[in-house]
Each structure stands twice: as structure tokens, then as C-alpha cells.
Write a structure and sequence with these properties.
Layout (H helix, E strand, L loop, with lengths): L1 E5 L2 E8 L3 E6 L13 H5 L2 E6 L16 H14 L5 E6 L1 H12 L4 E7 L10 H16 L2 H12 L6 H12 L3 H11 L15 E6 L6 H8 L5 E6 L6 H4 L1 H21 L1
Parallel strand pairs: 3-4, 3-5, 5-6, 6-7, 7-8
Antiparallel strand pairs: 1-2, 2-4
């Protein structure tokens, strides 16, 4: 367990293994625990660095406005703090947004990019978009984190044999700082870097669950905007692919990372 300071905020991260640096960034309301099924498999080949985003996990939860650009700046500070040079970056959901932001702002810091069940923008365009956002925003302010966690667990892991995953998510969610959770949710809505995707210079892997919140078609659309990207769809999976299909996910990611590392060694 290690900490570093950026702009007056103590940020927690963990390190495992040796090799090419690989950063794993979790989603909204989660923590380093998002990656518990990945760390052992990935640390066998890489130096794996797993941060807690500001407002999450063991990192400080300052009472302030959060932004995706701010989260990305924290990550850049961590890369500099550890002197990582070009690193592989994997982001899940909100972590994917942070990864996109970093990739368009500082492409030279990345060796590769992997985006999991995420998108390069969260824009409200139609009346229905505004209504859906308002509904979620209102519910989050009324409900306890424990109630949100139970509802989320049921949505992410609906199968009878996934009971332990449901319980795990509900218990973890209940520990969230509500103020920080809402501030992070607000940071996502209206954010976007889609018009700058041509700046992402390195190889990109986009992973989508077949039953993610947003359709596979959405990922197909933005993959075309990335200079060097491909899409892999993981079957029988929902939004938390690294937890509900860990073997498939780990294999897909490791094959991609190995290919990138091999190519860069040849040059």
C-alpha cells in the first residue's frame, strides 16, 4: 500500500510484479478491488500499478468539484511520480473515460490503451437523455449507498450462481463516500473528447460486453475514429466484464499487451 500527493490530495495506489508498466483504472464508485481477478494474471508478466481515483477507495475524498480532466491529471502525476515512461493503460467504465482523456492530452505517455465498457463522451442530446440523467441524479441523492449497491449488484450479476458477486458489490458500494460519489457522477455527465480521438497515437483495444449498458454499435462507431484500434466483444457479460468473465478478459488483454510489447521491441 503506497501513497503519493497531488494538488494537496493523498492518492492511494498498489504495485505488483515486474516488467512493462501497466496501469489499471477502476470505474465510478469502485476501487482497486475492481481488478482483483486481473492482478495475479497480469503481474506474472508486467509491473502492475492500480490506483484509487480521487474520491474513491483509500484515496482522499476532498469536498470539491471533480472532473475527468482532474482525475487524468492525478494519473499523469502518478506516472511521473513513479517515473514510468510509456505505460500500458487500461480503464473500465469511468476509468475508460479517464484513460481517453489522458490519451488525447498526453499520447506520448502511453504504450497502449485498453478501454473496457466505456465511451469517449457522455453527452445529453435529446430530451430523453436529459430525463434519464435527471432520474438517475435524483435517485442517487435520495437513496443510500447501500441501496444503490444492492440494485447495482442485481443488475450487474443477475444469475443465481453470481450471488457472491452481488453481495460483494453491495458491501463495497455501501462504503462509498456519498458526496465524492455524486461529485464523480457529475464529472462524467457532459464530458467528452470524441472530436480529439485522432490524437490517440498508440495501439488501442476496445473491449465491450455483449450486454453492456451501451450497445456494441456505439463502440463500433468510435473505434473507427481511433487511428489504430480494434474491438473485441465478450459474450455472456455485462458492465463489470473483468469480474463476470475474468478468464476471457485476462486472456484477451494479455494477448494484446504481448503483441504490443513484441512489436515495440522489434523496432
Amino acid at each position: 500500500m503506497a501513497y503519493f500527493e497531488h494538488e494537496g490530495c493523498n492518492l492511494h495506489y498498489e504495485e505488483y510484479g515486474h516488467g512493462t508498466p501497466l496501469l489499471l483504472v477502476h470505474g465510478l464508485g469502485s476501487s482497486t478491488l475492481d481488478w482483483e481477478m486481473q492482478i495475479p494474471a497480469l503481474a506474472a508478466h508486467h509491473r502492475v500499478i492500480v490506483p484509487d481515483v480521487r474520491g474513491h477507495g483509500r484515496s482522499d475524498k476532498p469536498r470539491e468539484r471533480y472532473s475527468i480532466a482532474g482525475f487524468s491529471a492525478d494519473l499523469i502525476a502518478l506516472i511521473e511520480h513513479l517515473n514510468l515512461g510509456p505505460a500500458h493503460l487500461v480503464g473500465l467504465s469511468m476509468g475508460g473515460m479517464i484513460a481517453f482523456q489522458l490519451a488525447v492530452d498526453q499520447p506520448q505517455l502511453l504504450k497502449s490503451l485498453c478501454i473496457v465498457n466505456s465511451a469517449p463522451e457522455v453527452k445529453r442530446r435529446s430530451r430523453n437523455d436529459y430525463w434519464q440523467w435527471f432520474k438517475r441524479w435524483s435517485l442517487m441523492r435520495v437513496l443510500s449507498m447501500g441501496t444503490i449497491g444492492k440494485a447495482l449488484g442485481a443488475k450487474l450479476f443477475p444469475k443465481p450462481e453470481q450471488a457472491s458477486l452481488r453481495q460483494k458489490i453491495a458491501a463495497r458500494w455501501a462504503k462509498n463516500d456519498k458526496h465524492a460519489y455524486l461529485a464523480s457522477f457529475d464529472a462524467i455527465v457532459g464530458w467528452g473528447v470524441q472530436e480529439r480521438l485522432s490524437r490517440v497515437s498508440g495501439p488501442t483495444l476496445v473491449v465491450s460486453a455483449d450486454r453492456d449498458y451501451t450497445p456494441v454499435a456505439l463502440k463500433e462507431t468510435y473505434v473507427k475514429l481511433l487511428p489504430d484500434a480494434r474491438l473485441v466483444v465478450i459474450a455472456d457479460s455485462r458492465h463489470a466484464t473483468p469480474l463476470d468473465q475474468p478468464e476471457r478478459f485476462n486472456q484477451t488483454l494479455l494477448e494484446f499487451l504481448t503483441a504490443v510489447d513484441t512489436t515495440t521491441q522489434d523496432h
